[in-house]
Design goal:
Distance between the termini: 7 Å
Order of helices and strands: HHEEEEEEEEH
Radius of gyration: 15 Å
Number of domains: 1
Strand content: 35-45%
CATH topology: Lipocalin
Helix content: 10-25%
Number of strands: 8
Largest sheet: 8 strands, antiparallel, barrel
Shape: globular
Length: 173
């Protein structure tokens, strides 16, 4: 496990990441205990962005985890801590990206686990995806990712995501 942490620190330095508690998520800083409920394919891979990808865009690469309603004031449709993951699997220098948005269950809201493939573009520091529900993501100055959920043009929920190790989300150590 030490070698993964070392590689993460090296990649963080190369991509201008700051090693903050948010970036050390799932090393005991963030509780990812509900992640096993989230359907993630065992074939999922996160590609290291090529050197041609601008550093500000490359920072999006990786796995991000949150629990809706856990870090936001007020009620939301996705409240009660619905676990969610944004996987940014690949990024091109143009900002075009591919990934997965996946969520766990919430019996109170009759929400079953699920996932959807994403093909979108990181443009001017924002990633927008979705059809029925529109999600808009942006990187915050503290290195965390803010994900907002819209329905019929109205903001319905906000979730603050932490970078996590993909292997941890998939039950690895």
């Amino acid at each position: 496990m030490w070698h993964l942490r070392f590689i993460f620190l090296i990649c963080s330095s190369i991509l201008s990441f700051e090693m903050t508690p948010a970036l050390a998520a799932c090393y005991g800083v963030v509780n990812c205990s509900s992640a096993p409920d989230i359907p993630i394919s065992p074939a999922t891979k996160i590609e290291v962005p090529s050197p041609n990808v601008p550093p500000g865009t490359a920072r999006w690469s990786g796995a991000w985890f949150c629990q809706w309603g856990a870090a936001t004031a007020g009620a939301s449709y996705y409240g009660d801590g619905l676990p969610a993951v944004l996987l940014v699997e690949s990024i091109l220098p143009s900002g075009d990206m591919e990934g997965v948005y996946a969520w766990g269950s919430n019996p109170k809201l009759s929400v079953a686990p699920g996932s959807t493939r994403i093909r979108s573009k990181i443009n001017e520091g924002r990633l927008v995806f979705g059809t029925r529900f529109i999600f808009q993501a942006s990187l915050r100055l503290d290195g965390r990712l803010e994900l907002q959920r819209y329905r019929d043009g109205a903001l319905t929920a906000t979730c603050i995501m932490d970078r996590v190790e993909l292997s941890h989300l998939m039950g690895g150590s």
